[in-house]
Amino acid sequence: MVHPSPNPLAGPPGPPRAWPNDYAPTVATTIDRLRAIALELPATHEELTWGTEMTFRVRGKIFCTPGTGDEFVVKVPNDQLVALLDDPRFRLAPYWGRFGWVKVRLDRPIDWDEVTALVHASYRLIAPKALAKLLD
Predict the structure, then answer these.
(1) Digit-coded pLDDT (tens) for 8-17
(2) What is the pTM of this model?
(3) Given this model, what pLDDT does residue 7 score?
(4) What are phi and psi of 94, to 5 degrees?
(5) Is residue 18 part of a domain?
(6) How large is the greatest C-alpha to C-alpha distance in the chain, in angstroms?
(7) Per residue in 107-121, pLDDT tens?
(8) For residue 14, is it within any domain?
(9) 117 falls within a domain
(10) The CATH number of the domain where 103 resides is what?
């Protein structure tokens, strides 16, 4: 399928560019993958909060924020917090850190299995128990 270019300076139209699975060429693509992971979970939705911050919620409660696309924020179990903070990709999230929330830097290539596990774990901590059990 050939997509016409809206920019006349972009050259002749051609097929869409294919990217390897472990590389996200733009922030939008990374956020789209985070969105897909979060919104596949039961009773979730996306909401703009504080005027500029995209959040993923379950029954109105935040369980993940995709941040800038180079990092995201999730809640982690208290017993895993110290171990995660030993990894330089993890740091306490501003304002929320004291409640067990961490900001995770997305190093390339992105380990999407790890991202999925972190988002799912955060969901389990925030979701009502009946919904959280649906992931087991």
Answers:
(1) 333 344 444 4
(2) 0.78
(3) 38
(4) -55, 140
(5) no
(6) 56
(7) 888 999 999 999 999
(8) no
(9) yes
(10) 3.90.1150.30
